[in-house]
Specification:
heterodimer; A: about 290 residues; alpha/beta; Rossmann fold; 10 helices; 8 strands; about 35% helix; globular; B: about 550 residues; Pyruvate-ferredoxin Oxidoreductase, domain 3; 4 domains; 7-stranded mixed β-sheet; 5-stranded mixed β-sheet; 22 strands
Chain lengths: ~290, ~550
């Protein structure tokens, strides 16, 4: 069985007090609790402080381009669906640069687990607005305040019938660990938006700001009820719900691809001799 | 209709060359399908036409002038709404013959095929076989009615074409008829390609369709991505995970892939990219042809890294180079391009057979615990720059890579020494080995030529036939480059001496600026004495090209 030591990674380059630390800890504990070995896991990440995540643990890692983690993760999952495949990045990565991929990954319901470290600010480029920054937030780059409405990933996901939609909070590590476990155990696509205070650049959405607003969804919330889930997804401001907002049991993309029903593509080795023989037959169609 | 007729000829033992011209619209418009057949190898379309089958008035207006001395235009007055009293026109009631035999109006096409065979004095049995094949999913009655329609056209034209002077006899041996795009797709499949992700874009779509058609039989995942950015990133994901992967697109789509190309280079993830060119800039002429993206493919991607560019000139080269593309990309963990264009997508050629036995078959991925266990380093420094590439998940070792500059393990670094060593590894250590893999250009024609015609990619067939004809009067030869980058060395074939020994050296390209000629000058210092460029989106026809060639060589 794996231990926390198996998941000890490189020295981090995150700011002291960053919400990422709690996320990393919850993540490692979840994997240990599930008994998943590092080599059974592949994390694809993008660019941003959250994009460095896989280096701070141990796993198969593809730290790719900004916003492009989902297509890479989709390719990995299709090539080897026995791997646990995660895509980890920030709100700029997942909701800005990678927005189109997110929409289509939800449509596919590919079995990739997405964790968005949502700090509502661009940290690595030092403090510009992100797609989830609240309207009116003043930054060096938005001196008149953010003019656009913030992107609501939970509402968008429920609207698109995303098969697992959850929100966690870096300040509630135990609860977050439970969400990570649920997301991993879900068979299709999972989106977990993790509210993460940025102590360096976001002076609005602070730990204190969240402490006053965040509450755990209780047993009265039925995540299978899509309309009810949409109402919860719209909740933001005075009260912010965390927990599993919505889930359904749609067929996953891997379940629908005929050629990988017996075993993963990567385990289907065809000898070159057989391929050549087969191709000789195929070429006869061109006569 | 054109495909069925062409197949009748190739099955009758003829060398066949087909080409198409159509508009960027879903249905309708004026479209042509040209078939050339000969008892000798042919590799290009001609301007003069012996039989025109006219299904619309535009066919008469635009193409009557293309008729050769013995040429005949065959048409149905009912379809064109006009009867022509001309010596070289033959009227055949395609629609009437289709419906009177109990068939549907659409079978007028089959009547027309029958009519052409009647005019040529060929047998009709091979057409019946071809129909049986193309209609194999239809019921017996449909097949029977198609046969009746074909026979009606065949008999009608055979009896009524008094001016027909053709005599096309059955030859021995059937030939394969295939487009270069299909040949590339089959070459990829036999090379073990198991993942193809792309976004539909003319003229690359045919490759994806071919792969999708074979997906079940060969166990290939073909995924239509949401955009080209996703397409290349998905292919890279699959490749990283241990599966041979490929993507394909045209210029505009490739523009979106450029960032992913650079990612392939940094993460040393093998990928094969089919880049099917069409005239640009921007949307350009979506269904026409051009060789305008050579320097784009060569320079695409931020940063400096090795790449290989192939540009097949015919189906056989397409098949073999697709195989070589996979071999090279896997062996050196680099991106390899196969450049085609609309012309190679739309033309079909007869081929004797593909040399399946000459293909590469090396496995370059590793999954054993001795290499991939505990201390495995994905980007380990080695003598030739190539690090063992383990398959993630199949062993206890971890495969780590990064688009950031990284250390041997694959973790992010920023220090100067590691950065420099990694550039050396990716670029300078691999490059000499990659360069050795590149074959010299094809030298064809006179051994000590006064005139050398130079081309790359899709102009192969054109130049070859033109050289055949011109060689009756001149000491002329062709140098055709299908392995373009790294630029071939002169070790195996000293083509530079050949070029320097010639009086006239003409580089022929389907682009405005002579991109290959510029590349050759940059790489070798050699400058051609003349350029022939065409950039109206249309391929050269043989006669037109010979006219231009003779203007240069007298």
């Amino acid at each position: 069985m794996p231990t926390l030591d198996d998941y000890a990674g490189q020295v981090t380059a995150w700011c002291p007090g960053c919400g990422n630390f709690a996320i990393l800890k919850a993540f490692k504990e979840a994997l240990v609790e599930l008994g998943i070995e590092p080599h059974q896991l592949a994390i694809v990440s993008g660019i941003g402080q959250a994009g460095k995540f896989p280096h701070y643990t141990r796993c198969n890692t593809f730290n790719g381009l900004h916003g492009r983690s989902l297509p890479v993760a989709t390719g990995i999952k299709l090539a080897n669906h026995e791997l646990l495949v995660m895509a980890i990045g920030g709100d700029g990565d997942g909701y800005g640069e990678g927005g189109n991929h997110l929409v289509h990954a939800m449509r596919r319901n590919i079995g990739v687990k997405v964790f968005v470290h949502d700090n509502q600010i661009y940290g690595l480029t030092k403090g510009q607005a992100s797609p989830t920054s609240m309207e009116g937030m003043i930054t060096k780059n938005q001196p008149f305040g953010v003019l656009s409405e913030p992107f609501n990933p939970m509402a968008a996901a429920v609207a698109l019938d995303c098969s697992f939609v959850a929100r966690g909070y870096a300040g509630d590590q135990e609860h977050l660990k439970g969400l990570i476990i649920s997301a991993i155990n879900h068979k299709g696509f999972s989106l977990v938006d993790i509210l993460q205070p940025c102590v360096s650049f976001n002076k609005i959405n602070t730990y204190e700001w969240y402490r006053q607003r965040v509450y755990r969804l209780g047993p009265d919330h039925n995540p299978e009820d899509r309309v009810g889930a949409f109402a919860r997804a719209l909740e933001w401001g005075e009260k912010i719900p965390i927990g599993i907002i919505y889930r359904n049991n749609r067929r996953s993309f891997e379940e629908g691809v005929p050629v990988i029903q017996d075993k993963p593509l990567v385990r289907q080795r065809i000898s070159f001799g057989d391929l050549k023989e087969k191709m000789r037959e195929t070429l006869k169609e061109h006569y | 209709m054109g495909d069925s007729l062409a197949r009748v000829f190739s099955r009758s033992g003829y060398h066949v060359f087909t080409s198409q011209d159509y508009e960027s619209r879903v249905r309708g418009g004026h479209n042509t399908y040209q078939i050339r057949l000969s008892d000798k190898p042919i590799t290009v379309s001609r301007a003069a036409v012996d039989i025109i089958v006219a299904f619309d008035r535009e066919s008469v207006v635009f193409h009557e002038k293309e008729l050769s001395e013995i040429g005949i235009l065959v048409y149905d007055p009912a379809m064109l709404g006009e009867k022509f009293e001309r010596q070289n026109f033959l009227s055949v009631p395609f629609v009437d013959l289709a419906t009177s035999g109990g068939g549907d109006k659409v079978m007028a096409n089959v009547v027309a095929i029958g009519a052409v065979l009647g005019m040529l004095g060929m047998g009709i049995e091979i057409l019946f076989d071809v129909l049986l094949n193309t209609l194999k999913k239809r019921d017996e009655d449909t097949i029977k009615r198609n046969k009746v329609a074909a026979l009606a056209g065949y008999n009608y034209a055979g009896h009524n074409c008094v001016q027909c002077s053709f005599s096309v006899v059955q030859l021995s041996g059937q030939k394969m008829l295939i487009s270069t795009n299909d040949a590339i797709a089959s070459g990829a499949i036999v090379s073990g390609c198991r993942f193809y992700s792309a976004y539909p874009m003319t003229p690359s779509t045919g490759i994806m369709l071919y792969m999708a058609g074979k997906a079940k039989e060969y166990g290939i995942i073909v995924e239509q991505a949401e955009d080209e950015i996703a397409a290349i990133n998905m292919a890279l994901g699959a490749s990283f995970a241990g599966v041979r992967a490929m993507t394909g697109t045209s210029g505009g789509g490739f523009a979106l892939m450029v960032e992913g190309l650079s990612l392939a280079a940094m993460t040393e993830t093998p990928i094969v990219i089919a880049l099917a060119q069409r005239p640009g800039p921007a949307t350009g002429l979506p269904t026409k042809t051009e060789q305008g993206d050579l320097l784009f493919a060569l320079h695409a991607g931020h940063g400096e890294f090795p790449r290989v560019i192939f540009a097949p000139g015919d189906p056989e080269q397409g098949f073999l180079l697709a195989n070589k593309a996979f071999e090279i990309s896997q062996k050196y963990q680099i991106p390899v391009f196969i450049m085609t264009d609309q012309y190679l997508a739309d033309t079909q050629w007869t081929v004797g057979h593909f040399e399946v036995d000459s293909l590469f078959c090396n496995e370059h991925r590793i999954s054993g615990d001795e290499v991939c266990g505990g201390d495995y380093k994905r980007h380990a420094f080695t003598d030739n720059g190539v690090s063992p590439f383990c398959i993630p998940g199949l062993t206890s070792g971890l495969v780590v890579t990064d688009s950031d500059e990284h250390d041997e393990e694959g973790h992010i670094i920023e220090d100067a020494a590691t950065r420099a060593s990694m550039v050396d590894k990716r670029l300078f250590k691999k490059l000499p080995f990659i360069e050795k893999e590149i074959a010299p250009p094809l030298f064809y024609g006179h051994k000590q030529p006064e005139i050398v015609v130079i081309g790359w990619g899709s102009t192969y067939g054109l130049i070859r036939e033109a050289v055949d004809i011109a060689s009756k009067k001149k000491n002329i030869a062709m140098l055709h480059f299908s392995e373009i980058y790294p630029f071939p060395s002169v070790d195996v074939l000293d083509y530079l001496s050949i070029l320097k020994g010639a009086k006239t050296t003409i580089c022929v390209e389907q682009n405005a600026t002579g991109q290959f000629a510029r590349l050759m000058k940059a790489e070798t210092g050699f400058e051609c004495t003349a350029l022939i460029n065409r950039y109206d989106g249309r391929p050269f026809l043989l006669e037109e090209f010979l006219g231009e060639l003779y203007a240069h060589i007298g």
